[in-house]
Specification:
Length: 727
């Protein structure tokens, strides 16, 4: 047990933890009553808005029709009254800048009436548009400082809601964030644009199959959120966790996750209390959180909602992250959303379940029961195969970050190679299509699209391949490379746009081949599917994505393997990416460039901060502790000699060697850090990746080695063992 006060205090705080507020009571107030109670949802709007206004708004929300600005004043007024009844004093436009965070700036409803009193006011103008002082948000050169204005624009399709604080509440209005000339500065704007593109192209294709739908075709997102929880007191003795969100030092705990006793285990008591409050808060906000469980690593957990329309699902995932962080503190814990807070055990990801469809049609990635539906499904599926093959590098770039680099390809998460898992049965179907042996015998289950011999396609492919970054799971794809702290907005935008381009291609080809004659459709589909799978089947891989063999095979197949963020980000400004995004009006070339620049900058800032922390912690925390121990050993030697023992102590030599090693490696890192200056953004990121990261690991290796030999009562940092196993 540690003698260091900070560690002892942390441990005693964990042991003596008592809940700080009264228990929740789901019996008195039922979850069904709580759900959506803080949301300006359809029911509230129906009750409070004039019929015509309600109808007009509903059309915009459900059918994607243009917003009629003349309704804004009425809506604003109703919203304000509702919010004030719920105790709100302020309102805020909530937006999602490219940092991946959620941003808000509060304004009071209160305005002086000029007679010494005050009124509560909220106009349509204030609802529709805001002008936060946005000069400090990254814009990647899209906005010069003298034109620093950014505008927030009301997103009618994501409902306003109330957030609570013990001292009051405030109204939150989801918005898009753009520059004065309309360029996207956020994650939401391109997402809305990409949903529109998807709708147009999907409908063209559906029309060929004779399918009409009133509702827009849109993306659906079901993000499974992983996270770590550790006692908050440890953080105060751990500057790395406090500042960088991950441990930069720490010897492996004697026990890690090898017993597999954590996954789906009984949720620890305090953690369960935390989960229940998180869920209650999210219920109020209308976030349909559904599952909770222990994850693989010690102190790692997961929360997943029921999937929702992509834009709403994205906003809701931001709320999930904010709520996890906020509520954890109330339970004396800290929620780490970092992708790799602890070396040597699993990191956290966010599996993004993705599909395309709407409430009328369901998921268009759902095989369906009839051959006709199956043919349509296969076309959508082939579009995904084609898209992923062509633009895998673009999708890869959307999940690139300094923190996610620790996870991807580290035998716990999919490799950085983007491939698709179809499952045995579906892969076999496409194999048959490829061979063109489609008119074979019924008994053998060989298919002929559009004829009754088509075998029923799998609803759930049973065995799940956890090593694939993009896996078909019965009625959707699961994109597993997203990092736990990332917004799902980026990957969704890419997926929607890639799908739009591919659906456009499929529709165009089928339109050409059928020339308006529906009788020709099935033959046209057969040959198109064959062409697509022949040209793009290389992206399909059903084997072990972690294996060395796959890395070699993928290279043969010409699939990019972009290991790190500096390798991956340039895809955003590649010719094919620019063409893709501009063609569908999702992002302009300038917007793409600015994104690449901002993400590179974030990468570099992250590593520079971490490197500075490594130097500081090694020098001011670890070095003095190890030196104290060295000095104890030295006195011991001296004393032994004084009483006549000619004593050589190997422990002293060992500690001395390790200390020296650490000192030297810190010196090297320091020197290398001086070389960062004066490089352009790409070169800087590359330098940090190739030179600084390994040098940081060098320091760590000596420090971690010291941790295993220095007397525990002198070791200043809470150990992995303590942080991960004391709950
Ligand atoms: P698992 O861990 O087995 O993958 P989870 O229940 O943890 O399953 O998460 C699955 C997620 O996929 C949930 O958010 C679920 O709502 C979502 N999902 C289910 N069907 C679809 C669909 N058609 N489109 C998008 N997401 C879906
Ligand atoms: Mg899950």
């Amino acid at each position: 047990m540690s003698g260091i006060q900070a560690r002892l205090n942390a441990i005693s705080a964990v042991i003596n933890y008592k809940p700080s507020h009264a228990p929740l009571n789901f019996h008195e107030t039922k979850p069904t009553e709580i759900f959506g109670s803080n949301v300006f949802n359809e029911k509230v709007m129906k009750d409070r808005l004039p019929k015509a206004v309600f109808k007009s708004l509903k059309k915009t929300i459900e059918l994607g029709e243009k917003l009629d600005p003349s309704v804004a004043d009425v809506v604003a007024n109703a919203m304000k009254d509702w919010a004030i009844e719920k105790g709100a004093t302020h309102f805020t436009h909530v937006f999602f800048p490219l940092t991946g965070m959620t941003a808000e700036k509060h304004d009071a409803f209160l305005v002086p009436d000029g007679k010494g009193g005050a009124l509560a006011e909220f106009s349509g103008q204030l609802l529709i548009q805001g002008e936060p002082d946005a000069s400090s948000f990254p814009s990647g050169g899209l906005r010069s400082t003298f034109e620093a204005r950014g505008y927030t624009a009301w997103d009618v399709t994501s409902p306003a809601y109330i957030l609570e604080n013990p001292n009051g509440t405030f109204l939150c209005i989801p918005t898009a964030f753009v520059s004065w000339s309309g360029e996207a500065l956020d994650k939401k704007t391109p997402l809305l644009r990409s949903n529109q593109a998807l709708n147009i192209q999907a409908k063209r294709l559906l029309k060929l199959f004779g399918v009409e739908t009133k509702l827009p075709v849109t993306s659906f997102a079901g993000p499974e959120q992983e996270y770590f929880l550790i006692d908050r007191n440890f953080i105060f003795a751990r500057p790395d966790l406090l500042i960088a969100g991950r441990s930069l030092f720490g010897a492996k705990s004697a026990k890690g996750q090898e017993f597999e006793d954590q996954y789906f285990g009984v949720v620890p008591h305090r953690v369960l209390s935390f989960m229940m409050e998180v869920e209650r808060e999210l219920f109020k906000l209308g976030v349909p959180v559904k599952t909770r469980h222990n994850e693989v690593a010690p102190s790692q957990f997961e929360i997943a909602p029921i999937y929702e329309q992509g834009n709403l699902g994205t906003d809701h995932n931001q709320m999930v992250m904010t709520t996890l962080r906020g509520v954890a503190k109330r339970y004396g814990m800290i929620c780490l959303l970092h992708e790799k807070p602890f070396a040597g055990i699993n990191g956290s990801g966010k599996h993004l379940n993705y599909s395309v469809g709407n409430a009328e049609l369901g998921s268009l990635f759902d095989p369906g029961d009839t051959p006709h539906e199956n043919a349509q499904f296969l076309v959508f599926c082939a579009a995904a195969i084609r898209g992923l093959h062509q633009y895998g590098a673009v999708l890869r770039a959307t999940v690139a970050s300094a923190s996610n680099d620790h996870r991807l390809g580290a035998n716990e998460a999919p490799p950085a190679i983007i491939s698709m898992y179809l499952g045995e049965q579906l892969a076999d179907v496409f194999d048959q299509i490829k061979k063109g042996k489609l008119n074979g015998s019924k008994q053998k289950g060989i298919m002929n699209i559009g004829v009754d011999t088509l075998p029923p396609l799998p609803m759930d492919p049973g065995d799940r391949n956890r090593t694939s970054p993009f896996a078909f799971t019965g009625n959707r794809f699961e994109f597993r490379a997203v990092g736990s702290s990332q917004s799902i907005g980026g990957p969704l935008v890419a997926l929607n746009t890639i799908m739009s381009e591919s659906l456009d291609y499929m529709a165009t080809e089928l339109e050409k081949a059928t020339k308006g004659d529906p009788k020709k459709l099935h033959t046209a589909v057969q040959s198109l599917l064959q062409k697509v799978i022949k040209e793009h089947g290389a992206v399909v891989f059903n084997g072990d994505g972690y294996s060395e063999a796959w890395h070699k095979e993928a290279e043969k197949r010409g699939l990019p393997n972009l290991h790190t963020t500096p390798d991956a980000l340039p895809a955003l400004s590649s010719k094919s990416c620019v063409e893709l995004f501009t063609k569908y009006g999702v992002l302009t070339e300038a917007e793409l460039k600015s994104r690449e620049e901002i993400y590179l900058e974030q990468y570099s800032k992250t590593i520079k901060t971490e490197a500075a922390l490594v130097v500081r912690m090694a020098t001011t925390i670890i070095f003095p502790a190890a030196m104290r121990y060295q000095s104890e050993l030295t006195s011991c030697c001296v004393n032994l000699k004084a009483i006549g023992h000619d004593y050589k102590m190997s422990a002293l030599e060992d500690v001395t060697a390790k200390l020296r090693g650490m000192q030297e490696s810190v010196g090297k890192l320091d020197k290398l850090l001086a070389g960062v200056e004066g490089k352009d953004a790409h070169a800087e990121a590359k330098y940090l990746c190739d030179k600084i990261l390994p040098a940081m690991l060098d320091v760590r290796s000596f420090a971690d080695a010291l941790e295993t030999v220095v007397a525990d009562d002198l070791w200043p940092l809470p150990s992995y063992q303590e942080m991960l196993f004391i709950r």
